Amino acid sequence: MDKPDQDKSDNGYDYKRYRDLLAEATDESKRLELIDLLIKEGARDQLMRERIRRLGLTKLVDRSWNRD
Prior knowledge:
mainly alpha
């Protein structure tokens, strides 16, 4: 069974970047910074999806995300 290539960005998620940041989070303060970053970026992504829906651009966005 093939594993998905998680080094690729998938809908804006850069798995390699997050994996590297996690590896660097060697103490409590760095882990908390990583958690804050993940929360902020998740909130930003959700806000962008809401804006896209309000503008009625969901079909255009869905089409561009499904090109792979």
